[in-house]
């Protein structure tokens, strides 16, 4: 019993000794690190990254306007008391990210690109749309890998492909092809016109307001226009069209609701951009 008590006492003593020394060591290490940070021997982030972030904020905040001449390497070396290698790396990263343009023999300039500029955009209707007519050409069930991937579906799942045209004053000016996951299609639709408005069907059938969901849209000029598209639009292949791809996702979950490919006659396309304040 005495032997057991003795060992317990020894273990308690040893534990207290170990805990005390560990605490002292930890305090010493923290104090040492703080002293090094104060002397500049340790930085939370690399120096070039700190310089890059600070310069980027100056550009974004409006201290430099688009096209303005930017700091020289010599100025930045003096400002931050760092080596030319550090400054060059920070500047090269800013150039790669599109904030500045470096021109040999001329200097560095703030990019004229509207990077991180908030804008509003909208289609400009160049004709009355109240008499527009939508025609559903076809509705087909499919599972081609290319579109399954765009919809985030598995290989054993299906989607519905819906082809539509839009006319105004007897002129067909838009050709839509939409791909919708099978779960969002009523397979017992009464007729093709049931899907003349896909947004309407999402709203009425599933209570999803597509205009309020997240989307990504890309527009580019298609020239020449693909033969099949030109035939549908009643134009020559040498007549330019605007090709638009759009992916709409359910904001709450990220699920893809629809992927669409649209061709629009170039003479019926106009878009307006408006810059806006960040507090807008």
Adjacency order of strands in the biggest sheet: 4-5-6-9-8-7
Largest β-sheet summary: 6 strands, antiparallel
**Secondary-structure element order, N to C:** HHHHEEEEHEEHEHEEE
What characteristic shape results from the CA principal axes?
elongated
Distance, first to last CA: 79 Å
| Model regions low in confidence, pLDDT < 50 over at least 5 residues | 1-31, 39-43
User: Averaging pLDDT over every residue, what do you get?
Assistant: 83
**β-strand number:** 10
The computed structural class is alpha+beta
CA gyration radius, whole angstroms = 31 Å
Helix proportion of residues, in percent? 25-40%
The fraction of residues assigned to DSSP E strands is 25-35%
How many H/I helices? 7
Assembly form of the protein: single chain
Folded structure, characterized:
This protein is α+β, with helices and mostly antiparallel strands. The chain has seven helices and ten strands. The strands form three sheets. It has a six-stranded antiparallel β-sheet, covered by helices on one side. Strand 8 and strand 9 form a beta hairpin. The radius of gyration is 31 Å and the shape is elongated.
Features:
alpha+beta; two-stranded antiparallel sheet; 10 strands; elongated
What's the short story on this structure?
With 280 residues, the chain is α+β, with helices and mostly antiparallel strands. 34% of the residues lie in helices and 28% in strands.
Please specify the SSE layout and strand pairing.
Blueprint: H1 2-38, H2 47-60, H3 73-80, H4 84-96, E1 100-103, E2 107-110, E3 119-123, E4 133-142, H5 145-151, E5 159-168, E6 171-181, H6 198-206, E7 214-222, H7 227-233, E8 241-249, E9 256-265, E10 271-275
Antiparallel strand pairs: 1-2, 3-10, 4-5, 5-6, 6-9, 7-8, 8-9
């Amino acid at each position: 019993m005495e032997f057991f008590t003795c060992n317990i006492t020894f273990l308690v003593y040893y534990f207290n000794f170990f805990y005390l020394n560990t605490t002292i060591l930890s305090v010493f290490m923290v104090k040492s690190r703080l002293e090094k940070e104060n002397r500049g021997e340790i930085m939370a982030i690399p120096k070039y990254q700190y310089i890059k972030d600070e310069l980027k904020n100056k550009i974004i905040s409006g201290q430099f306007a688009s096209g303005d001449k930017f700091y020289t390497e010599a100025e930045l070396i003096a400002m931050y008391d760092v080596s030319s290698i550090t400054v060059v790396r920070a500047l090269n990263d800013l150039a790669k990210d599109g904030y500045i343009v470096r021109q040999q023999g001329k200097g560095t300039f703030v990019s004229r690109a509207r990077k991180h500029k908030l804008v509003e955009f909208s289609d400009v209707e160049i004709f009355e749309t109240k008499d527009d007519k939508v025609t559903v050409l076809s509705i087909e069930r499919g599972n081609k890998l290319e579109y399954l991937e765009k919809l985030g579906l598995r290989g054993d799942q299906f989607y519905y492909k819906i082809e539509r045209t839009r006319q105004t004053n007897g002129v067909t000016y838009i050709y839509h092809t939409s791909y919708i996951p099978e779960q969002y299609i009523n397979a017992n639709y009464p007729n093709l016109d049931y899907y003349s408005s896909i947004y309407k069907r999402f709203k009425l059938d599933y209570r999803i307001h597509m205009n309020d969901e997240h989307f990504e849209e890309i527009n580019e000029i298609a020239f020449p226009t693909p033969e099949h598209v030109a035939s549908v639009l009643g134009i020559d292949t040498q007549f330019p069209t605007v090709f638009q791809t759009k992916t709409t996702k359910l904001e709450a979950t990220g699920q893809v609701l629809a992927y669409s490919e649209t061709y629009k006659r170039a003479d019926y396309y106009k878009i307006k951009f408006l810059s806006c304040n960040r507090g807008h």
